Amino acid sequence: MYMAQTPPPPTGGKVSRRDFLKLMAAAGTVMTFTPFVDWGKFLPNPTGNLSERQPVELPDGSQANVKDFPVNHSEAIIYPKTDDEVLNQEAFRTWQFIRLPEELGGAKNDASAFRIYSMVCLHLWCLWKYFPDTGRKRGECPCHGSMYDPMTGKAFAGPASLQGPPSNVLPMLNVEVDKDGKIWIMPPTWSPDKNGIVGYGRFLNV
Description:
Layout: H1 17-33, E1 54-55, E2 73-78, H2 85-88, E3 94-99, E4 114-118, E5 129-131, E6 138-140, E7 147-148, E8 155-157, E9 172-173, E10 175-177, E11 183-185
Antiparallel strand pairs: 1-11, 2-3, 3-4, 4-9, 5-6, 6-7, 7-8, 10-11
């Protein structure tokens, strides 16, 4: 289904040896304590009124609808959205709303045709995006080349794919479609075994 793993694109600048060693030391510390830390208490996960479903609000202010949102297309959305534009610019509130390509079920007019994943890459928190091009059709991080499966949110190439669960699968939001075709985000549960934790990951239940 996927092309062979491709080399990551070149990065914009070089990292000094000192900075690289500092980064490695920090990463080692994080990995040492990973099994023992409740990351949901420390990572800046989105907060707000999450007890009720929320509309999938597109950048133009309209609510996404199965009747007119294109197949094999994506938009960056904010969730949960607030009245504070500064808060809305937080990376941890940025999600990629994807209608899958036709061969992956995107032509269906129900919730199974859609995915919403956190845009925060699980490697070093750059923002990735979905590419709909023929032979591509995947999420790609521009910083270090991590690639994500649009069906599951699992990293299949690049440094994020080398990380252990749950830090190789993107957090996601569940959606439902009403009788008018409008798409809604269901209240999430921020834990690795449910919707995941932004910046940390999600266990893939198969």
